[in-house]
Write a structure and sequence with these properties.
The structure is a single chain. The chain is mostly helical. It has a domain of 81 residues. The chain is built from seven helices and no strands. The relative contact order is 0.13. The model has no long low-confidence stretch (mean pLDDT 86).
């Protein structure tokens, strides 16, 4: 139908996967902004993650920030609801909203040129 326009509803699955990847990347960026592991633990604690779980996920194994972004404590601290409150839009919701509106039919009239 158009450039970058999903053709069928099966493409919504792909949009959900892209959304999940974007959220994971944003989690890693938030952790990167904390600079140190102890600051990550303190921030997770401020987001109501239990201390044992936060310390276990952050200090338990030698994990990169990317690997840390998929831990249960990261999901609890930065859930989908948290991203919604931060203003992150879901691609699938945007597509549904866009697909639900009636198509705009643009039928221009023939322009007349005045020769003079």
């Amino acid at each position: 139908m158009g450039f970058f326009h999903p053709v069928d509803r099966a493409a919504l699955y792909d949009l959900d996967r892209i959304d999940a990847h974007i959220r994971r990347r944003l989690r890693a960026i938030v952790f990167q902004q904390k600079k140190r592991r102890r600051h990550i633990v303190n921030w997770l604690r401020s987001r109501r993650v239990p201390a044992v779980q936060a310390r276990g996920d952050v200090y338990g194994e030698h994990r990169s920030l990317w690997a840390l972004s998929i831990t249960p404590s990261a999901h609890k601290a930065m859930s989908t609801y948290w991203f919604d409150r931060q203003g992150l839009e879901h691609l699938a919701r945007l597509w549904r909203r866009w697909a639900a509106r009636p198509p705009e039919v643009i039928a221009p009239t023939q322009l007349e040129l005045t020769l003079g």
